[in-house]
Amino acid sequence: MTNRQGSVSGGIGEAAGNEIGAGRVLNGVFKETLRSIDNAQRILTYSIDEGPGPLAEDVRNYIGKVAVRPSDGGGGAFVEWTSSWEENDEAVHDFCHPIYVALLDDMKASLE
User: Fold this and answer.
1) CA angle at 63 for the pair 86 and 88, rounded to the nearest 5°
2) pLDDT at position 99, please?
3) Number of domains, the chain
């Protein structure tokens, strides 16, 4: 699977892509693991187990959460993407924030 912002390699590990424990590699450098998925609530969490820059050096227990909810206007969806980690270093925020913005912009553009 590819998009304008980068690429996602096939799954790694033994779990299928939609099963807890499924792994993937994003842009050849971010190794992620699916930690939970709630289809009814439309929420998933994942960990970044390996990554570049400050993620490699300054972060432990990185957990991302993506929640999709109906928009107040009724005709779309609201996507909330949050993350938390130990060693709350501003460099990690500065590194991750533009990545989230780019990915969410790409998602929006693909749906328009």
Assistant:
1) 25
2) 84
3) 1
